[in-house]
User: Which sequence fits this backbone?
């Protein structure tokens, strides 16, 4: 009998979805970044849950306050990708019984930090005893059926873009896990990207307001994985001519003899948005984001051929379907 | 520095609520059975999350399929207490990596079992690697601000009642944990109450339709605890003249020299509703439940004096504030 450590997270999700009976008239399909139920007419309630587990999601050097904050941020990121404003959160905590009074305050403060940054209120939850720290956050908001940006709407010719450069969390995790000591001006932003990640909520809401996007996903499983998910859901491929690598990542990679593209493509826990933009709205969308100090960076184009290839500095790269996956033993980190 | 194993779950919840900023115009206060956000006018979205953890919530003899089903049922019970029909569920799973393919199917089937029994659809979730089985369920539904039955509405003179007899899960857990072997005709219903608990959704919805209740809570932390919670939230006391003990519990207690009232008052994981009923609607409410094969059993009356006392067979009993609490070392089970 095979164990799930060999089968991996995607296999588990497939089995679950095969067994669960689907809600009739489901506004958002199984497996998208968020879930929803219809309320009345076009109105829908949008929900997301993601669980932070100490062993796999809290690297050395991350405080309890940071871990709790991250548990909120990673859920906000999925709302951002769909262009939905989260309103409230519930939090179910699994707590090892040897945590102290101060630990609980740190966790509460971290949850409140994350919530306040994105205008979210924590309205309830549950506490339990567990072997390992477990923070299960649930976000709720409401939206309109037509506003939601699914993974499935990309069309050939759309511009594929991201909201920031990549590679920082891969590099930051390497620093924390392997105890590396690059110069402080590189170390600080890289480690910060892991300990204090941010979600691109402002960007996602603005892009949805402009009706600029045809498909969207967050990059929490890595850039390459996100491109493959958009490709599968939309039935398109991508021709990439730019992979934006953060400058600190280039320096870090140079210092340690690593491939900066590898760090940028196959990382994870990086909360940028990966979107396809209607070409006729591209300039408007880019200007709108720039005007609030945010970025929209072109990677390339969606194509009808279902392959994902990059042409970087005259070199052809096939972007593989790999990235962060729970349970699988061969890990990026 | 004190550890949470000394401080207990209620202390943790108090600290969390002190630190979290409350949502303005919160339709249901912190600490009630469910949470909610306003949508438009009187309409609200109702949410509940409760986490099942292998170590504390899955007794020996409970299959994975039963554990997963229970994770849904315990959330449905809170919706039942508030008179709200759940529509959909999200499930965040924490899974030990040595679970097998078959284990995952069992968990999926159990979740689907619980959902189907109560007309709920599972619309999404998340899977993670963890040290211990963790099933974090989230239920969602919608309702009306005025329909929701809070814990705080009981008035002196109201009839306090429950939807079934008590003590079965305490006895059943004792059998499973201590390996007791009472006669099969007692053992079977007692163990079943633990392995295949049911939520009183039909009862809760019917009582809300009749506008029969002034306050309501489920008895998942035990009957005594639930009475104390209603007392605190409503600012009333209770004079009890009947504690309905299940017949199998009486026999079991006789056989093993246990106090049947103790088993009934201070257990937990028992999913009856504990409600206060408007006296003028009592007959109608009781008849309505009886006509669908359900029960409404009078315990006594709400009183203005904030004490909780029972007078059983001429003996005065003070009902203590104790029952199931996570983290606390002195446990009922």
Assistant:
């Amino acid at each position: 009998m095979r164990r799930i450590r060999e089968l991996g997270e995607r296999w588990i999700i497939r089995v679950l979805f095969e067994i669960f009976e689907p809600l009739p008239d489901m506004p958002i399909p199984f497996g998208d970044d968020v879930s929803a139920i219809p309320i009345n007419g076009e109105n829908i309630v949008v929900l997301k849950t993601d669980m932070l587990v100490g062993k796999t999601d809290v690297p050395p050097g991350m405080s309890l306050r940071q871990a709790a904050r991250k548990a909120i941020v990673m859920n906000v990121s999925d709302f951002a990708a769909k262009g939905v404003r989260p309103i409230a959160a519930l939090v179910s905590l699994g707590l090892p019984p040897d945590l102290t009074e101060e630990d609980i305050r740190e966790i509460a403060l971290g949850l409140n930090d994350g919530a306040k940054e994105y205008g979210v209120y924590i309205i309830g939850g549950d506490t339990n005893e567990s072997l390992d720290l477990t923070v299960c956050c649930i976000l709720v908001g409401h939206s309109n059926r037509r506003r939601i940006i699914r993974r499935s709407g990309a069309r050939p010719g759309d511009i594929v873009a991201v909201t920031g450069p990549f590679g920082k969390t891969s590099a930051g995790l390497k620093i924390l896990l392997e105890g590396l000591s690059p110069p402080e001006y590189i170390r600080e932003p890289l480690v910060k990207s892991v300990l204090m990640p941010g979600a691109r909520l402002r960007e996602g809401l603005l892009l949805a307001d402009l009706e600029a996007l045809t498909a969207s996903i967050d990059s929490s499983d890595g850039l390459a994985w996100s491109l493959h998910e958009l490709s599968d859901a939309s039935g398109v491929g991508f021709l990439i001519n730019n992979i934006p690598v953060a400058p600190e990542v280039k320096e870090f990679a140079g210092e340690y003899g690593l491939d900066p593209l590898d760090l940028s493509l196959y990382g994870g826990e990086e909360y940028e948005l990966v979107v396809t933009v209607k070409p006729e709205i591209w300039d408007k969308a880019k200007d709108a984001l720039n005007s609030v100090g945010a970025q929209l960076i072109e990677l390339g184009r969606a194509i009808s051929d279902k392959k994902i290839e990059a042409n970087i500095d005259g070199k052809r790269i096939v972007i593989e379907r790999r990235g962060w996956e729970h349970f699988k033993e061969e890990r990026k980190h």
Summary: Chain A has a mean pLDDT of 94.
